[in-house]
Each structure stands twice: as structure tokens, then as C-alpha cells.
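Input set for joint prediction.
Command: fold jointly, output C-alpha cells.
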Amino acid sequence: MEYLIQQLINGIQLGTVYALIALGYTMVYGIVRLINFAHADIFMVGVYTALFTATAYQTPFLLVIIISMSVCAVLGVVIEKLAYRPLRHKPKLSALITALGVSLFLENFCALPFVFGPDYRSFPELIPFKKYVIWERFTITNIFLINLLVVSVLLSGLFYLVHYTMIGRKMRAVAYDKVTASLMGIDVDRTISFTFLVGTALAGASGILYGMTYTSIQSPYMGIWPGWKAFIAAVIGGIGNLPGAVVGAYLMGISEVYANAFNSDLGFGIAFAILIVVLIFKPTGLLGKKPHEKV
Amino acid sequence: MKKFLVILSVFCVILGIGCSRKPKDINIGGIFPITGGSATFGKSSKEGMQIAVDEFNERGGISIGSKKVLINPIYDDTAGQPEQAANSARKLIDQNRVVAIVGAVMSKNSLAIAPICQSKGVVMISPASTNPEVTKKGDYIFRVCFLDSFQGIVMARYAYNDLKLAKAAVLYDNANDYNKGLAQFFEEEYKRLGGEIVASEAFTDEEKTVDFKAQLTTIKAAKPEFLYLPNYYAASALIMKQARELGLDVPAGGGDGWDSPKLVEIGGKAVEGGAFSNHFSKDDPSPEVQGFVKKYRDKYGKDPDALASLAYDAAHVLISAIEKARSLKGSDIRDALKATQLKGTTGNISFDQDRNPIKSAVILQIKDGRQQYITTVNP
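C-alpha cells >
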């Protein structure tokens, strides 16, 4: 029992990490209907930015977050402007392939020796690490509690932004129908830019938390696997749906940990098995809605 | 007519250049993971091999037939991926016409390139692939490092006999032949000695996995006294860190994959006291080791690690064999290599009938963030 509960804690920890990335994926998809594959690589840029600002100038924690999120946000807006906007009225597939291209470009460009280089690096302890042992049995860390807090704040903040603010109303209008939205006086380009700004700033934030959680950076290709897992989590939860991304992420994190606990040779593949099962029974994901029929 | 003359003169110039390039240098391939998660291995190997090549070239090269030729090393990157390693081998053999190949470093990459070298009749000598299967791919495949079986046995004996710990747990990467091999031989020897393997857990691909808590929680529940982590430095450091987080504070051990300054950089205090088997210690007083350490320091401004010295030995043994064979034919080089008797930086090197070296291992321990020499274990 004790063992199963500790594994549940491990699963929630892993799910929280996936949720941090999945929120950004799903947010951009929900508004722009574009799977921004470069999201995981912007996340990687966020980790590196945090690493460099924190180690080079002894920057305080809060400033590291601000710098890292701004760098990612600017990068996201630039990518949107250069790569995605020219293709907005082209078939969906063109934008999807471009997103893959941007992703590969960022990975390989950053892996060049004079950019970030391909080596393993250690990520500094931005805040002192603490371990709590509850009832002398279960261990959790302060980093995990921060992650949990950030996920809940981000989820409610984003939900509020999309559903209860003016810009959120614009975003939803653009998501529903771009042409009609622009007829109603909404600046579609600006709204989409703003969506990317928020989505990629999120990637920056999740990057810092990821770095703090695992205290090491593998290489500029580090975004690929967390990115895929988070993307699968977003699809399981119903891509475009904010709470769905979090639900999907926890489902994945917890089942991955239990699968590893049951037989550690199986754990890695469980995400894909769950994805297939969910898509067979609920093609739009657990919390996803059927797409609107537009007349 | 004028046109003809121009063509003729161009032709002559080309021919002239062709003639003046004799005697031709010989190409030797080096296939290493220069980028990716094991990039420090690849870079060290490349640097070590370069020193051996420089030594021969500074002497004026080696004699082939009646001419002196220089050695021209051509390095190629595997990025740690077997597919890329196989492509490198084909490219080096078909396009660069290398006479022999030093590489690869990781066992999974060597297993990918060995069949290619064997079928093309090109000698391959791996500096650091310790999986037994590698040299079984054919009689053109050699290595200068000891085997996984030996490393696993050494650490099992160290944990059971020296540390007197009778319950061990193993956590290894099941996507890599090296890790699997070490884990298997450790478990076999440990059980043979009378110890108990209380947990044997795996994860998939250390380039993709960063969260080991599920497996570590399982291991902790089995109450081991020793943790064997036959993985590369980054994953091993992360595992130890997360193990300490979960309150699993038992001594840990590993193999030569731990030999990188990054182990301490990533793992910090969590890796303190960890012990691992290795090929070489730079504190070894033998003239071969000290001579190499000096040259390496002069050229690169740092101390060599085991990967550098193994690649140095591999290239040294290989080029000496080519010199002795006085031929660039694969079969001649192979026969000369089989008769090798050389004292290298990683011990005496001679090959058994399976083209594996017969040599000793050292055990090093992390103390105050540095590697300390503990003991030498003979086969």
C-alpha cells in the first residue's frame, strides 16, 4: 500500500511535468488550429536561456523566469510571423509540415557548437532543494510542490484568459471563424500573435520548471521526448481543451509510472498504448468536443 | 587546334598533380559519438587517436612497400546512433577508402558497423565497446578494452567481497547492449558468489528517459544494500540523485560509462562514494601512461580520461600492425594485429583467439568530487 502510494506520488510528479508542456500545445491548437511542433523546442530554448542567465550573472530567480519567458515569447511571435502567417490561407498540411521544419531547425541550429552545443549540462539549483518526508514514509520535494502550484495557477489563469476576458473572446471568435471574426472588427493577425505569445511564454516557464526538476539538460534535442509525451497527453485529453490537457497529462504520468513499477521494460511504450485505446473509443479525446460544422 | 592544345595542357596539369601526390597518404577512419548524450566520449576518443597518429607522423610516417607514407585520420560522428554509425562506416570505406577503422565507442554502434567492416574485409578495432558480441562478428573485428563480462564480474566481486554487501539491486538501460551486458554479468557473478539480487529493473534509452522514480521506488521497497548502475554518466548521475531524493542511500557502483567529469557535475553530492570499474588511471606511474598524459596535456591542456587512452592504444596498436605488415591489405593487417604484443597505456595488450585483449581493470571511487584509484583487479 505504502509502495503504491509512493508510486502514485511519482506519477503525479511526472504528470505535472507533462501538464506544463501540454498546456502550451493545447492552447495554441485551440485557437489557431495549428499543432505547433516547435513548442517543445521553444521549451528547450527556455531551459537554456534560464541556464545561461542563472549561471552567467547570478540573476535572481524571479528575473530568470521573466527573461526566459520573454525570450521564448519573442521567439514564438517571430516564428509565427515568419513561418506560419504566410501560410495561413494555404492548406492545413503546409503549416503542419512547416511546424515540423521549424522544430528540426531549432534543434539542429541550437546543437551547433557555437550556439548551445550538443553536450550534457547540469542545470543550477535556482532555489534550494528541499525534501519532505511525510509520516516517515513518503517523499516529496519542494520542486514538485512548486510545479503543482504553477500548473494549477496556469490552468486557471489560462481558462480565465480564454473564457472571461476581451482578448479571450477575440481568441475564441478567431478560433471559430477567422473571416467572420475580422468582419466583426477583430484584428485576426494580432489575436493570433497574442496567442503565440502566451503559448510560447508558457513553454519558457515550463522549461525552467523542467530544468529545476531534473537538474540536467541532455542536449538541444531534449525537447523531443517530453514534447511528444505532452503532445500525446494533449490529444488524449482532447486537443484544444485546457483542462483536457491536464487530465491527459496526469493520466499519462500515472499510468507510465505504474507500468514501470509493474514491469520496467514496458513503461516507455504505455503512452502510445493509451493513446491508441483512447482514440479508438473517443476520437476527439477524453474532454474534446465534436468539431463544429460550419455552413 | 587551339582548343585541343588547351584541353591537352589541362590534361597534363591534372596528370601532373596526380603524379606529384605520390606517395599517397593512407586514410584511417575514426568513428566516434562526437555529438549527442555521449559526446564527451567521442571527443576524448578523437583526441586520443590524434595523439597516436601524430606520434607516427612526426617520425616521418610508416613504411609501406618501399615508400614512407603519412597517416591521415578521417573522423566521423555517430551521434550515438547505430544507424548513423553504419552510414559512417559505409562512407569511410566506400568513399574515403580507409585501410582500417578505429571505432566505434558504444557497443550498440560497434555492433552496427562490425558486419559492414567484416563483409568489406576492412579491419575494425574498437577502443571501448565492451559487449562480448562485438568481436564475434568476424575475424576482422578487434578491440583493446576488456569485456562487459569482466567489468560485471569485477564489480560483483568488489561489492560482495570488499564491501561485504549481500543484497544488490540493478537498474539499467534495456535499449543498449552495453548496459544490458554489464547488468547480466554482474547479476550472474553476484549470485554465484552467494549474494542476492533483490531487484533488477530497466528503463528505455537514457537519451529519452530522465525520470527514474518509478523503478527506484520499486528498488527501495526491495531493500538492497548495493545499487549497481551500469549506465553512462548522465543517466547514472540522475539516477543517484533521484535515489537520494527518495531516501535510497545505499552505496552505488557502475562501469566505465561513469568515467566523465559530468558525472560529478550533474550528480553533485549524490554520486559521492560511488565506485566504478575502469580501464586506466592517469595516476598510474608506468612510463607509457605518464608519457601519454604529458603529450595529451601539452596538446589539449587537460588530463586524458580512459576513453582517450583507449583510443590512443587502439590507434597505436593498429598503426603498428600496419607498419609491421608493410601492406595495406585488410588480411595482412589482420594477421599482423593477431600477433601484437604491446605495452599500452591501459595495460599489456595481446589478443586471444577471439581478438579480445587479455588485461586488467582498475576500480576508481568518487571522493570529494574527484576520481580516486582504489585497486587493480586482474582477470
